[in-house]
Amino acid sequence: MHVFMNRFAKAMAIIGGVFLTVLIVLICISVVGRVLNGVFHGPVAAILPEFSKWALAMGVGPINGDFELVEAGIAFTIFAFIPLCQITSSHASVDVFSTLFPDKVNGFLGMIIEIVFAIVLVVIAWQVYEATLAKHRYGETTFLLEMPLWWAYAASFVGAVAAAIVGIYMAIFRTMEFFTGRVILDDHAEVMH
């Protein structure tokens, strides 16, 4: 089961990485277009007015609604990375006092943290689901692109559900580790933060 969940988390991270790459490329193209638009309205228009008019007529400029697309995609991207962070215990942590505790206490704390994380992820997924329904029901759209807002919420819901599934799995996993006394997955084998 752990191999499957690990692959699932990695697949979500890869999908999130692809989305993030697309968003980065979109931003870069939009910024270059914005700069070129300014150049074709300024210095080039003074020197080569016909070329400037032609370039602007071809649509040189920022991508319309670029910030709306980034806003819509970034939430899914964040949710897509959470399962991998969860299953590899790679969330940022501050271990000021926990290094002083015995292994049994740290195991108990790890179990409690995973349970709380699972509960929070389930609540987030539930709230994103409710928000998706509300945005769909009221027909809200973005300002420039007039894209239905519920699309972005639905994509985020998929990521939130994936995060919740892995969160629940890890809570069960850490609870089993604590009560059996066996270390199945050594957190210290992971990269230290």
Keywords:
193 residues; 6 helices
Largest sheet: none
- Residues in helices, as a percent range: over 70%
**Which range does the strand content fall in?**
under 5%
Q: Which stretches of 5+ consecutive residues score pLDDT under 50?
A: 188-193
Give the overall pLDDT as a whole number. 90
**Strand tally:** 0
- Domains counted in the coordinates: how many? 1
Q: What general form does the structure show?
A: elongated
Structural class: mainly alpha
Helices, by number, come to 6
Which radius of gyration do the C-alpha atoms yield? 23 Å
Structure description:
The structure is a single chain. By secondary structure, the chain is mostly helical. The chain has one domain (2-189). Helix content is 75%, strand content 0%. It has six helices and no strands. Helix 5 (103-138) packs antiparallel against helix 6 (149-180). It is elongated, with a radius of gyration of 23 Å. Residues 188-193 have low confidence and may be disordered.
Give a short overview.
The protein has 193 residues and is an all-alpha fold. Helix content is 75%, strand content 0%.
Secondary-structure topology with pairs:
Elements: H1 2-41, H2 43-47, H3 49-57, H4 66-87, H5 103-138, H6 149-180
